[in-house]
Amino acid sequence: MSSQGFTTSPACNPRTEEDSSPERAAATTAALFDKLSNSMALLREQTKKLETALVEKKKREAHLWAVWHQVSSSLEAGRGEAVTAE
């Protein structure tokens, strides 16, 4: 027996006919299905948020690379002019 007064011993906690009834099993199954459905809906929602965040990250990354290439090209062009001017 645990400190909360519950026990896992079958002798101390006999199952009743009601516990094993088809109606009880159906109710338990329905409750578990509802929990699973809710969890899956939350998972889909979180997945969508993550996919959106990933798309935004890729857009920002592409923009930064474009800016980097632009700056790099400008610096290279500036260096070439400085070298040819000498």
From TrEMBL:
<feature type="coiled-coil region">
    <location>
        <begin position="33"/>
        <end position="60"/>
    </location>
</feature>
<keyword id="KW-0175">Coiled coil</keyword>
<feature type="compositionally biased region" description="Polar residues">
    <location>
        <begin position="1"/>
        <end position="11"/>
    </location>
</feature>
<feature type="region of interest" description="Disordered">
    <location>
        <begin position="1"/>
        <end position="25"/>
    </location>
</feature>
<protein>
    <submittedName>
        <fullName>Uncharacterized protein</fullName>
    </submittedName>
</protein>
